[in-house]
Write a structure and sequence with these properties.
Blueprint lengths: L1 E10 L2 E11 L3 E7 L5 H9 L6 E6 L2 E2 L5 H7 E4 L11 H6 L12 H13 L15 H16 L9 E5 L7 H16 L3 E5 L3 H7 L2 E6 L2 E6 L1 H4 L2 H8 L3 E4 L8 E4 L14
Parallel strand pairs: 3-8, 3-9, 6-7, 7-8
Antiparallel strand pairs: 1-2, 1-4, 4-5, 9-10, 11-12
């Protein structure tokens, strides 16, 4: 679905990404992991078409991504960024309707309104449809934005594979809605979407990823399944920290915890 061929990105004399090559297939949820500053968001911007690589090529199917028209691209890929500041008092349903703009010219049709409310309900924010977006909590706003990208790619009757790019979609969410968001992303991957998610939570990556790209300083240092990548060695290299990897029969994914280095228990005293 999307292929990166030796892509690099530079700002002035600083190289942000170093000759990255990989392919992401439809039907998979891929997760990008790495420390702050590893180049994850820059990579997502290049894969979305927002930025061009300084070197190399990105293919969307057989097409050069950066030569696909904006209108055509809007039907094939959607992007959820980290922040969406807005000074205007849009209602939540109006934010989600923005995802339908590629599908109509002057006025949304009945199907557009139906899709908007379907997506709001799927992200459990249907009750906020007429609420001002600005009055919602950070996690609620992020779920509205997730509903927007779902609405953008929903094209009933069209079977062409879609690309969904999510940059830290769960950052503002509580644990319940983190699960909701990533289950929806996994469901879309299962239906044939190519989904790429940037995460910081190693355990969410372990639970939901089909494929992981582990980055450090603009380079990919490990790729593979969660069990192949989420091991003490690669994690120590990427994060400069040690982890213990736990396996339980009732889970089909590893569980990671920071390695303990405290030899004595710490006594925490309450102050009255």
């Amino acid at each position: 679905m999307i292929t990166a061929q030796n892509i690099s990105f530079r700002v002035g004399q600083k190289t942000i990404l170093h000759k990255l090559s990989f392919a992401l297939r439809p039907g998979t949820l891929s997760v990008v992991l790495g420390q702050n500053g590893a180049g994850k968001s820059t990579l997502l911007k290049i894969l979305s078409g927002e930025q061009k690589p300084s070197e190399g090529l990105v293919l969307l199917g057989q097409d050069d991504l950066h030569k696909v028209s904006t209108a055509a691209l809007a039907h094939r890929r959607a992007v959820l960024s980290q922040q969406y500041p807005t000074a205007l008092p849009f209602a939540a349903e109006e934010i989600v309707m923005m995802g339908r703009y590629p599908h109509f010219n002057n006025k949304p049709a009945a199907i557009d309104h139906t899709i908007v409310h379907e997506c709001l309900d799927e992200m459990q924010v249907g009750a906020f449809a007429r609420r001002s977006y600005q009055t919602l909590s950070g996690g609620e706003q992020q779920r509205v934005q997730m509903a927007r990208v779902l609405a953008q790619l929903r094209d009933k009757g069209v079977q062409e594979s879609k690309l969904l790019l999510l940059d830290e979609p769960t950052a503002s969410m509580d644990c319940l809605h983190q699960q909701l968001c990533l289950r929806k992303a996994k469901e879309l991957a299962g239906s044939g979407y190519c989904v790429l998610v940037i995460l910081h939570d190693l355990n969410l990556a372990a639970q939901f990823a089909d494929f992981i790209l582990l980055m450090k300083h603009g380079k990919i240092i490990a790729t593979g399944t969660p069990r192949e990548v989420l091991r003490p060695g690669p994690i120590a290299e990427a994060y400069d920290m040690e982890v213990n990897v736990l396996d339980y029969d009732e889970y089909d994914f590893p569980i990671l915890v920071p390695a303990a280095h405290i030899s004595k228990p710490v006594l925490i005293r309450s102050i009255k």
